[in-house]
Amino acid sequence: MSRLVVASNRVADLSVAKQSGGLAVAVGEALRQRGGVWFGWSGDVVEDGEPDVPTTTSLDNVTTVTVPLSRSEFENYYHGFANRTLWPVCHYRLDLAEFSNEFLESYRHTNARFAAEIEKLLLPDDILWIHDFHLIPLGSELRKRGVTQRIGFFLHIPFPPIEILTATPEHEWLIDSIFAYDLVGFQTQTDLNNFKRYLLQLGNTTFLPLDRLICGDRELTAGVFPVGIDADHFAEVAHSPESDRIVESMKVRDPGLALIIGVDRLDYSKGLPERVRAFERLLELHPEWRNAASLMQVAQPTREDVDAYVDIREELERLTGAINGRYGNFDWTPVRYINRSVERDRLAAIFRASRIGLVTPVRDGMNLVAKEYVVAQDPDDPGVLVLSKFAGAAETLTEALIVNPFDTDEVAEALHAALIMHQSERKHRNYALRTKINNFDVFKWQKDFLTALEHSRASYLIPERTA
Ligand code: GDG
Predict the structure, then answer these.
(1) What is the whole-number distance in angstroms between the Cα of residue 409 and the centre of ligand 1?
(2) Cβ atoms within 10 Å of 307's Cβ, excluding its own
(3) What are phi and psi of 114, to 5 degrees?
(4) In this structure, which residue's CA is closest to atom 5 in ligand 1?
């Protein structure tokens, strides 16, 4: 079995990976099985001109190598092209996207710098797995350095439709760089179709069966690999003695209250203002839920240096204040807004105690919270998942109540339907969803991707080494 080299924006601490979530566990497991290296940003920023030496730590047969970003890389590569250009473009938000040559140059340059670091770590039989939008051109930078090993790339966020992508300056360069990979994986069929439609319209790709694509002298296999969760572990945590205690104390504190839970990074892609408005609409359309249902929204702060994130936070605080002022009383707070991170174990217990998991992003690659909510439920008396049709998860989790997050009345009615849903229907839906989530967990995702990578045709022709 080949050794594995993983590159992603951040690297998990493998000694506590269970707390970081399923993705870190699954990647960590693959690394432990095969032996290998995990490369990424350390999270540190050094002033321009200061040394940016890598930090290396080893645990058994796995080495993590992290590098700091310089101040200008942090501003222009990370907060610039990654967070201010690619993130909004890939979430269909051209209105929020900022384009600048400085961002683009820094993105190219930082990926080239990472490639130089990674090349030093490689052995001839390694396979490489590169993750996400921060590192799209990393593969082509490695190829420029003469790297011939198999390289796979997985995009965790949506691949936008051609009409949006072509508004991004240098989109041809960006998409062309994807052909440096032997395998590219997307979360959903919609994303893969968007990718293929882009290639079809640009006209320089040959389409072969089984999503093999040829462009110039390069061949790429494309596929759909919907990311999963560590379902067994999450269910176990949700039913631990500590969770029993948390669930019990929540019942004692608010007897009879129907809790609706939302958990997201505070990001404009997650549809948080739309969600609060839909809950308010529920209280208008079905007043029987006043004093009887509350929305608890955990919104972990993220990317607070970017203006669009400051705006979304202010909007959410304004909306929450308005609804609580309008409907709340001494005994009941309609919306409980928690603007900080909550420990993973506590989250699992809160999911279990909630009658509805409300997951309504306006665009999302997959959305793991939807899957976590389902497996945290008591199978004999489960809550209901209300899920946006614009989350990648909706492509498979069809037994959820699927809604359009922009349609306030539709979401409000789905909430009402979920709150009054008979136990037998809840059990039936939860069983179907849980089965899918268990069968396609994060370990299967990891194995499927790596198997496909090993079987992909490594037909990349080495270009002349460009120093
Ligand atoms: C990207 C894509 C894709 C959230 N708040 C807290 C907390 N969380 C955990 C959740 C979940 C994870 O963070 C969030 O995962 P999502 O999938 O929901 O969303 P993104 O962070 O946007 O992830 C997404 C994913 O990559 C994987 O490919 O699904 O579409 O955007 O596990 O539980 N965890 C803790 N405290 C919090 O307050 N401990």
Answers:
(1) 27
(2) 10
(3) -60, -40
(4) 264
Percent of the chain with pLDDT over 90: 85
303 lines ligand 1 (CB under 6 A): no
* Ligand 1, atom 4: closest residue by C-alpha: 264
Q: Distance from the CA of 321 to the center of ligand 1, in angstroms?
A: 25
pLDDT band at 302 (very low <50, low <70, confident <90, very high): confident
460, pLDDT greater than 70:
no
Told to judge if 364 belongs to the known catalytic residues of this protein, a careful annotator would answer: yes
Matching residue, tokens 């089984």: 210
pTM for the full model?
A: 0.95
How many residues belong to the chain?
467
Q: Is pLDDT at 463 greater than 50 in this prediction?
A: no
pLDDT in tens, 142-177: 999 999 999 999 999 999 999 999 999 899 999 999
Q: Are 175 and 167 in contact (CB under 8 A)?
A: no
Q: How far is the CA of 366 from the centre of ligand 1 (A)?
A: 9
Q: How confident is the model at residue 466 (pLDDT cuts 50, 70, 90)?
A: very low
Rounded CA-CA distance 227/187 in Å is: 6
Q: Count Cβ atoms below 10 Å from residue 130 Cβ, excluding itself.
A: 27
Query: Rounded to the nearest 5 degrees, what angle is found at the Cα of 132, between the Cα atoms of 130 and 133?
Result: 125
Determine how β-strand 62-70 pairs with β-strand 258-265: unpaired
State the Cα–Cα distance between residues 48 and 69, nearest whole angstrom: 9
Domains detected in the chain: 4-228+443-455 (3.40.50.2000), 231-439 (3.40.50.2000)
Contacts of 369-374 with C-beta under 8 Å, sequence gap 24+, read: 369/263, 369/264, 370/397, 370/400, 371/228, 371/229, 371/231, 371/397, 371/437, 372/229, 372/234, 372/347, 372/348, 373/261, 374/430, 374/433, 374/434, 374/437
pLDDT averaged over every residue in the chain: 93
Task: Kindly name the residue from 156, 191, 264, 267 that is annotated as catalytic.
Answer: 156
